[in-house]
Specification:
There is one protein chain. By secondary structure, the chain is α+β, with helices and mostly antiparallel strands. It folds into 2 domains: about 130 residues, no CATH class; about 120 residues, no CATH class. Helices cover about 35% and strands about 30% of the residues. The strands form 2 sheets. Strands 1-2-3-4-5-6 form a 6-stranded antiparallel sheet, covered by helices on one side. The protein has a 6-stranded antiparallel sheet with strand order 7-8-9-10-11-12. A hairpin with a 6-residue loop joins strand 5 and strand 6. Helix 2 packs antiparallel against helix 5.
């Protein structure tokens, strides 16, 4: 894996940071521990502080032992990573298989230096995690169907940039006087996908059209089968879930959203 361009030098090792947005169903900050070994720079440790599946690697270039974090017990992955770097760096470098680097760290007695440098790493990490987060802002739709504390936005999208088109359903709500998008379903012809929390975590899931050939029908079925509360919860909005009028939602889906969405697709068929 390429090395992050944001660097903090700390004596025998350096810390490289980058924010990874290109993972469709996940994203997050990457922190690498680098050092010179046999005349070349080597990645000793890597911490992938992702939203959904945070994990870390011992010796990515040697043994690549990967372990996953339990966010329930570890808490924030960036905070957990920085704690380990401050308190267990020497032991982790040895486990990664780089005893010579660990010896160099130990001889230099770098506790104060590394601690000071890690303060800089933390400042950069927190800033990057906020400022470089991938989000997407869609239009609300040409027609909006209210359903209690949520709304369904409906439109037909033509995206020449990616050569794709199809009906889209936006699940919207109002928070503190501002309309936000909880979920988005892009039932496109070429690369259909949907988003959990487009303006929050923006987890993107691509349909396998071999098993789900009609993604618009699949989307409507999830609403009718009562899956919407769980999906909104996963998107990061439990407070919205608590106020849902579930019977009203199903009624609105069956009587308004479903016939209008199917008619919209038919009207734009090629």
């Amino acid at each position: 894996m390429e090395t992050g361009e944001t660097r903090v030098e700390a004596g025998a090792v350096s810390f490289a940071l980058q924010y990874r947005q290109e993972i469709m169903d996940d994203q997050g900050l990457n922190i690498q521990v680098m050092a010179e070994v046999d005349g070349r720079e080597v990645e000793l440790l890597r911490f992938d502080c992702f939203d959904q599946n945070p994990h870390y690697h011992y010796g990515p270039e040697k043994k690549n032992e990967r372990l996953f974090l339990d966010k329930t017990t570890a808490g924030n992955p960036i905070g957990w990573t920085l704690k380990q770097l401050r308190t267990r760096l020497l032991e982790m470098v040895r486990r990664a298989g780089y005893d010579a680097v660990a010896d160099e760290i130990e001889k230099a007695k770098p506790a104060a230096l590394i601690g000071k440098k890690l303060d800089k790493v933390e400042s950069l990490a927190r800033e990057m995690a906020i400022n470089e987060r991938r989000t997407v802002t869609h239009k609300r739709g040409d027609e909006v169907i209210p359903a209690g504390n949520i709304k369904f936005g409906l439109e037909f999208r033509e995206l020449q940039v990616i050569n794709d088109r199809g009906p889209a359903i936006h699940v919207l709500t109002d928070v503190a006087g501002q309309e936000i998008e909880l979920l988005a379903f892009d039932c496109f012809e070429r690369a259909p996908h949907y988003h959990y929390g487009p303006r929050n975590k923006d987890v993107r899931m691509y349909w396998d059209t071999t098993v789900v050939p009609d993604t618009l029908r699949w989307t409507i079925d999830q609403f009718k089968e009562g899956k919407l509360p769980d999906m909104i919860e996963r998107a990061g909005y439990p407070g919205v879930v608590a106020e849902l009028d579930r019977e009203l939602i199903i009624s609105k889906v069956e009587k308004e959203l479903e016939p209008k969405a199917l008619a919209l697709r038919a009207a734009n068929a090629q």
